[in-house]
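Sample entry (437 residues):
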Amino acid sequence: MAKLTKNAQNPRIAALKALSEVLDEHKNLGDSEALAGIQDGRDGALARNLAYGVLRWLSALEWLAAKLLARPVKKRETDVQRLVLLGLQQLWHDHTANHAAVNETAECARSLGKPWAVGLLNAVLRRFLREREALLEAMQKAGKHFAHPDWLLGEIQRDWPQKWREILDENNRQAPLWMRINRQKADEARLQELLTDAGFEVAGHGLARDAISISPAASVSRIPGFEQGWLSVQDPAAQLARDLLEPRSGDRILDACAAPGGKTAHLLESCPGLDLTALDRQPQRSGQIEQNLERLGLQATNLTADALDTGSWWNGIKFNKILLDAPCSATGVIRRHPEIKWLRSSAQVDTVVQLQAGLLNALWPLLETGGTLVYATCSILKRENSQQVERFLAQHADAALAGPDVEWGAAGPFGRQIMPGEAGMDGFFYAVLRKSD
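Predicted structure, serialized as tokens:
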């Protein structure tokens, strides 16, 4: 790809660079340096919207491009191919004026030192405008409008034969912005006033009592109360972990795989007096936990260690409660992170399923008799969720399923599944396990 430094403030070229960071370097879109580098708020919003949109609809856009191009773009011209996708995304899903989408996208090729591609981009995008209805109808007949990789589409269809279309539709929608109120610190009346004065609409949530939605979505730097520690970004589905763990003052709790610390903080905000250990194996991610706790005015024992290697960090005193928010495919949060569809594979899920089983087996001996372990994932795949819990229970006579006994989610024999979009929430799975003699 041509160097993009001199064009860093062009929102379309920034979006192009962000796509390269994700698809070539396998970064998460939220960590994109190209998007973070745009100083103008309006240009930044456009760049983010374009990058997220292309990744949300990637395979469908690629199908359209293949139909519109007289011959494939050479492999070494990846940036030109992705400019086609950016242009199509604007014309198909965005509110950009047609002439601006075509002209500005085509001119990006000139900025990249490829004037030969300006005519190509103009021709392809204008052809889409002429043939739009026929192309989109053909796409739907071919089943390409789902915009999911074949392996994931097939697994969702097998796991949820009655709900798979609804799941795919939700995955392809933009998620709302949900935040959590720090009730130990926030002046809630003043917070409501500040948010309203800043032009935001605020609403609560019927299931997660500390959750509020804020619209329109904005970066946290623009949201009153965030820097003061009154608010944190967290989906209501993730906030339900606190309710299931039922923290009480004096409880000795382990939050395994805790980074970036959202659930750790929620537990501490809800119940002063906890003896809470937050664990993550990566120093950088442990640093995120520490930064979040400091912003919120909270304290925990923050350890950088591998949860599987309990001998390297556990002091031998058993925990009353353990939260295992296990590493997973993250297929329940695709609407927030559309790159997940293209960065995951079935083989990677196989690997993470083994890791989840290893973590359950390693941490179970650290739980006292009568204690509770909450197993959670932000996945909708049964091999990570109900099937994982089923295997664990079959192998541990001292383990019993104790819930969750709640009204939300889809009840199963080994836990409860929240579907993407249910009550505005992300996809999440929970199982509550109790340890007997």
